Structure formats: C-alpha cells, structure tokens
What does this fold into?
Amino acid sequence: MTAARPCRLISLLSLSALFLLAASTAVATDGSALMRESDRRLRAEDESARYRMELFSGDALITTRTLERYQKKLPDRFSTLVRFTSPVAVRGAAMLIEDHGSTQNDIWSYVPATHTLRRIPGSQKQNWFMGTEFTYEDFEDYKLSSYRFTEAETVAPCLVWAVCHVVDAVPSQVEEQRASGYSRKRYYLEKASLFPVQIEYFDATGRLVKRLTTEGLHRIGNYMRATGITMSNLVADRHTRMVVLYISTSHSLDANLFTQRQLRSEGD
Amino acid sequence: MVFGRRFAVLLLLRHVTRAMYAVRLRLLVISLICAATFGVEVGTGSAIDSLFETVATLQAGANMADLELLTAPDDLKNLPDFAALSDVMQAEWRLLSSGRIDLGSGTSVSALHVGADPQQFASINRLTLLDGQLPLAEDPEGVVLERNCASYYHKRPGDRLTLSIGSVTYPLVVRGIVQSPEYLIMPLNPSVYVPSSGSLCVLFGSAQPLAEAMGFAAFNSLLLRFAPGDLRTQREAALTLAQTRLSVDYSLTRAEQFSQKALELDLNTFRVFLPALVGILALASICVVFFLMVRWIQGERQRIAVLLTLGYRRRQIATAYMLPALVLLTMALLVGLPSAWFNLWSFGTNYATAIGMPDPALQLHLKHVAGAALMNAATIGLGCWLPIRTILSIEPIETLRDLSSANDEQRRIGRVALLIGGPFWFRYAARNLLRNWPVTLVSLLMVGLSLAVSVSFHISLSSIGRAAHDTFAGDRWEAVVDFDAPQWDETLGKLQQNHPGTHWVPFVRGGAHVIGPSQIDLAYLVGSEPGTDTRRVQLLEGRQLRDGDADVALVERRLAADHQAGIGQTMMLHAYGDPHPITVVGIHSSAIPGEIVVPRATGQRLLGLEEQFTGAFLVGPLPDQEAVAKLLALPAVLRVTVKPEIDRAIVAHNYHVWILVRLSALTSIFISALFLLAATMFTIAGHSSEYGTLRLLGHDDRTIIRIVFTEIALQVCGAAAVTVPIALLLAHMLNERLTNVWFKVATHASVTDFAQVLLPAVLFVPCAALPALWDVLNTPLDDALKERRFG
It folds into this structure.
C-alpha cells in the first residue's frame, strides 16, 4: 500500500477529556500497520463540519472565528476544503488540500481581500496558518509513505482512556525531511478506536514545541470524532481551540466543491 | 600713420554704432527674441536637472530602503530572521492593503493602506510631515495621507475616512499630511484602464486595526537596508532567505521601484521633447536675425558704399558691421538670464505640479547657461553671416542712388505694378511692395514663419486632443469599468445578468517590468481578448493580436525602441513569479507610456490572475448617468469611464506634456509678437523717406496713414497665406517628436488653430505700426529732401 491515506488533522475532532499519561513500557516495533489501520478507520467518504475557532494568548481569548470544513474521497485524490466564515475580515479565506497519494500534497490558499489564489510550495508548509498555532503541514494526513513509524510504547491509562498506543513518526523521505518543520511527531492512538487523541511535535533540535489534544470523542455514523481539539504552542504559550458546532459523515458532497474555482467562490 | 589707421577704425566703429543706435529698438526686439530662446534652453534644461536633483535629495534624506521584497500576505510569525544576514542593517515589515476610500456621492477612489509599526514611518522610507502629526501606536484609527491624495481630494487633518478592504470597513481619522519618498510623483493605479491623476490614494497608518480584524498580524512587504557593498549579492542573499518561508512576488531595488520608474519616464519625456522645442525656437531666432540684418544692411548699402569710396576695405567694414552681432549676443545673454529664471520657475513648478512632485529646489545650471550661450552665438552668427557677406559685394558706385535699379527685371515689375488699380494709397502701397519684391518676399516668409511657429504649437495642442479621441474612436466599447480588486471570470455572468442588454469584454491590467540586458523599465501590462474589435491598438508595425495567440505582445513604440525589440524578437517580462519571455508581434502607439498588450490568457498568467479580470469594456449602448450610477453601486466597481470622458482622462494622464506644449505656445506667441513689431518697424522705416517725399508733394497725413496700413496689411495677409503651409509643416515635425516621446499624434489642423494666432496678429500689427508711423509723420520735411528718394 503505497498511497498515503489522508487523515486530516481537522478530522481528529472527537476526544473527551485528557488524563496524564501513565506509561507502560513496551518494546519498540514497527508502527506502520497500526497507523494504516488508524488511517482507514478515520477516513469518511464524505464529511462536512462547522467549527468555532478560539485563539488564546496564555489564558486570554484574543479572537474567535468560525469555519467550515468539507472532505471527500474522489477517484484520483482525497480533497479537503477549509473555509473561514467569520469574522468579516477573514470570511472567505480558504485552503484546499489535494492528496493524490504522492510525497507532497497540493495545498492551495485563497485570500479574499486581494482575490489571490496561491499554491503553497512544499518548502512553506511549515509556515503558520492565519494566525493560528497550526502550520500548513498540521492539516496534512499521516503521510504514510513519507514517514517511518515506530510504536514506542503503550500507556495505560492514557489521558481519559484506558490504553493508548504511542507511535513515533520520523520523516523517512529526504523531501519531507526538508519540508517539514518537525524532526519527530508522537501520536497517541486510543487503543479501541485507534483515534489519535494526542499528538506531540518536536522541532529540529528535538525539543517538544507543540501539542495537540482532543476532547469529547464520540461516534458519528461509522466514525469516531472529537467535539473539540486544542493546538498548544508550548514555546509561545498560545493556543488555538476548535470546537465542533456541526458534523456529518452521511451527506454526499458534490465533487465540484473541491475545486480551485469553489475555493475562490468565498462561499457564495 | 598708425594713429591715422586707428582713428579711421574708430570713425568706422562710431559710424556703425550710430547706425545701430538708429535701429536700437529693432535690435532690442531681436535681442529679446534671442533671449527668449536662451531662456527656454537654460530655464527648462535647468528645471529638468533641478527636478532630478530634488528627487535625489529628498530620497537621500529619507533613509530609503535599498531593497523591497513584495510577498504574498503572510502571518508575521513566518517572517524570516533577516538580522542573521551580516549585510542587513535594518529590516522592517509592513502590510500593503489595496482597498477603496468612500468619497461620498457614490464615488470612491482606489486606496493603498501602508500598515506598519508607526515608529517605522520615522526610521525607514521616512515620511516628511507637512501638516498635523504622524501616526501614533496608541491611535490605531489615525492615518496620514500622502500629500497628492490630500490635495486632489481636499482632505485635511481631522477629516474622517472610511477605508474598505475586502468586505471590511475601517473608520479612520486623518491625523496628518505627509510627503513620502516612495511617492514623489502622483501615485497612479496601474490596474485601472487610464491610470490618471487621483487614481490612487496612499495612506500610512498602524497595522494594528487590520491585525485586530483578522486576528493576527500579517505582512506582504519587507524593507531592507544594507551595509555598503555589492547590492546584487546582498539582494540574492536576502531573496534566498526570504524564499525559505515566503512567496516572493517581487524584489525591487530603489532604482527599480515603480514610482521611481514612473518619475524617470515622466522627466525623460520632458528631456527628449526639449530639444525639439528649443530647435524650433532657435530656427525662428536665426530667421529673425537674418531677416532683420538683411533689412538693416540693405538700408545701409549707400552708407557702406560711401565708406568704400572713403577708402575703407570691405573686410574692415564687414568686421565693423559685426558689432551688432556682439551687442545682440550680449543683450540676449543679459536679458536671457531673467528669462531663464522665469522659464526655470514656470516650467519647473508647472511640471512638478502636473506630475504631483513636491516643490522643487530650482536653480540655473552653468552647463545649460554655457550651452545656451554657445547656441545663441551660433544662432546670431548664422543669422548675421549672409547679410554681412553681402557687404563684400557692395560697390562704391552705389553711393549714387538707384543705379542698379534700372534693370530689365525691375522695368518688367514696374509694368506689372501699373496694372494695379484702385485708389492712390492702395496702388502706391501695392506697387511699393512689388518694387522691393525680394525684401517683401523675405518679409512675408519670415513673418509667416514667426506666426507659423505659434500656429504649429496650437495645432499640436488640438492634435493631442484629437489623437486622444482617435485612440479609441474605432473601438466598439462605450464604457470601461475598473474594479477595486481582480474579479473572477464567473462574476462576468452576474454583471451581465444585472445589466440586461449589455455585453462585457474583460481585460486584465497591472504593472510589470521589462528586463533588458542593461536596463529594467516599467511597463503597464494589458491582457485583452485577441481577435475582437472591442479594443484595437494604433499599430505602427507588425500585426494585431489574433485568436490563438499566446506569449506574444504588442509593445509600445518607445519601450520597444529602448529595448531594441523589433518584430519577432523576444522580451523578458516580469510581473509575478519568474520572468517570462514574450515575442513581439507588433509595435503600437499608446497614450500610456510603456503599455504592453498581450492576449488575455497570457496577461492572466503573467500577472498571476488566472481566470480573473481587473476591468471590463462595456459593449452596447452608451450608458447614461442613471446606468453609470447603477454600475457604480455594484460592490466591486471602482470607476466607470464612458467613452466621451476618455479623451479628457488621457489628456489628464499626460497633463505634464500638455503643459509643456502650452507653455511653448505662449513663448512662441511672445516671439511672434516681437518679430511682428520689428518687421513692421523695418517696413515703415524703410519707406520713411518716400513717405516724406509724398508729404512734400502735398499728400496729407491721412493718405500716408492709409498707405502705411495698407502696405502692412498686405504684408500680413501675404504672411498669413505663407503661414498655413509652414505651420502645417512645423506642426507635423512637432507631432512627430511628440509621437516619439509620447504616443501617435497625427496632425489635425482646424480653422480655430490658425484663427487664434492670425486674428490677434492682424489686430496687433496696426498697434505695432504706430510708433514707426508716429516717427514718419513727425519727421521734418527737409530731412526727406536730404534723402532724395522720389520713388
């Protein structure tokens, strides 16, 4: 299985509370199979959702936005469209991720004020996105073909869950090593659902710089989804929280929604 | 013996001085004409240099950035650390946001908001405060306006503005008016169809309101100052670092800035046109000097003959008669300097005002004074050369009156003159002109030339207006609609739905650079639909765009000439992303200097506007005021220019050229008036003894006045007839020059062009004749007897 099976970070919105990790040491083994299975379980054919995004500096709420996300499996790719719907200054700002299964995804960004549609080069995917604590690459999937996965351990209990698999992901492809802002990611997969309930990000020096946590994991149709996620920038003490307002995996989406033309339609 | 020779020379000089004194007024007039030419050359030449120096001084004092990187809007957190580069002395970010300012009454203007940390405005690309105060960090609503915008739209500190960027409106308060080193001339919006004055307002303020609205601080412009060193290497290092995190659209050194290029384009237009102007005035000066010297020497022939009989050598006499040339040159320089100051001031300030420059520091430049002095010496020398040479052919026998006149030719003329009928005063005047036909002919030609210069400038002015009209006359569109931001192609359908019965033809427009081996020039790129009659350029060479064309261009003539780009050759265009080669298939003339027309698809790709348009031609019936108001009410529509307004818009866009031609016309009128005055005086003075004789014979003053006025009127009528072809020829030459520096200006002469010069001339001549006539009527009759001239 060579094709990278996308699982957007945005899709990881279904965990309940988090507990401190109590580690139970295990022998490090290949985690690829585990990640492939997690990827399979996460991916819905069609998915649409609306979120409230809150930007915090420390504990202070700086701004609140709303956004929508559409995701669909198409014959030749897996596409995700993310579009801000408020406030008015960012309304229509959007991003389209096209995963053709190659090493690099195509990421398109649209700025409504200047009506500018741009392709984000691979070298810039480590850039911060629209003032959030997410970078463009945080929106990408596991990129199964570009990483080497090692199951480091299992922890029990794992946050609010009984047990988690802990899988370290290190870029294996030179291209990804160059493009990624991280030297390593650590996934915490809830054992029963294989849902990534926490992700830790390490910079080039190996320092833990960001952490993604999820809350309110529950079932939407055949898929587990979170009610909210928070990306914390541990260096700058800033946080971006996304709360799910609506989510559906049962409505078939029009393929035309996942085009550059739709991206620039500003949601009309 | 030596003493005797010296005494003889002194006597000769004394005689010439007396002769000069007799024509002192005429010499003064000639010197004024030469001074006017001197003044134009020195004044305008110095004005151009002063304008360039003013720009350099203002920029040097503004701590301007050595390099500006224009990037895609990005989160400030993605800003690379330029301090890591050893050569970078200062690196500042800012957010340039395009939007519109509501001016009320349904109109708005394109705006560029320069958002930054307010402290930056006093440290790099430093703003000069003209009124009010600079933006403060604790006053996010406060902005300062670039002075051209403030002046054009009458905005002052304390005025409130509403700036719209995208869907967001920002209420702002004008805190001050500033001069920006980046916008030393009127900022133009390259995206609108005719980037005329007032098409863009620039505001400087805190980036905080925008950051608050978006929820994060963003930037899209970086200003870098380097330590002294190789700018090319420094630029490459900065670019390499920037591209690790940013999408860089442009990297512009100070010399490559759009506003800098626009300034150079404007001032160089002036510089290229000036020689044509000075050339025409110098030609007029040569003719005037020549004519008046011929008349003077002719009047002196008998006295010169006497001098020859007294033993003076011809060369001695000719040299002595060069004295007026020296006097003329001295007087021309003395009077020319104030004239130069006047021209320096009038051209400099008018031109600066026309292009929106700050008040220039004007000063005369020695090189122009020296150059113009040499030119004046050459002008006077050339004008005097032939008349002085005629001295060498004068024989001592000419001391006796009219020995040379009784030849066959003059007898034939006398017989023709007898055929003229009418009252005595008319016959006498007409015969007088015929008898001295060579002098009459030269007078006609010279007066005609003098008037023709003025007429030619008026024809040029008319031609400019007509050419502006003709530029679009053959097009099928009735209005041009400009948008405040690029629109997507699919919105065209919505516009047509909203305005049934209309047809919209979209185009893209934007700024670009033409990259040559040794120079980079500013270009205005237009991507229009090929193979339609909606917009057809004035082709000078090659062909129009055709369906299926790609990566080809019609290049504005001057730009093509500057880059030596002929048909079939390749030019490198840089608008967005990487430089792109295009093949030249046509050379065209455009009112917008540096305009490059490409197929729309090519334009879209070059400008990074795939599937977008920045404006559209409205094809269909001419929209009335109600329809225009309806169009302006559409959210994205910035400006609607109906076809009848476009002529005015084009002339307004090139107002500085118009000013130049207008001032030249005024100068030429001054020269014409002086010449008419001098010519009239010579004509009357030449016949004064005859008029005296007529008075002796019993003719009353009324008859003399009739004869004089008739003679002058006949001369002016003849000159007017001569004026027509000469004026057309000169206007054609002038328009050719305008075509070279500007756009194709075909010669279109109207009756009005001639009437507005010739009618005042006809009315002015009797006034010009009055002083000489007064002398004639008050000359004692015994003086006339001494002259022994009985016709």
Notes: Chain A touches chain B at residues 55, 62-63, 65, 87-92, 111-118, 120-121, 123-124, 127-132, 261, 264-265 (CB under 8 Å). Chain A has three helices and 16 strands. The helical segments of chain A are 32-42, 174-179, 260-263. The two ends of chain A are 39 Å apart (CA to CA).
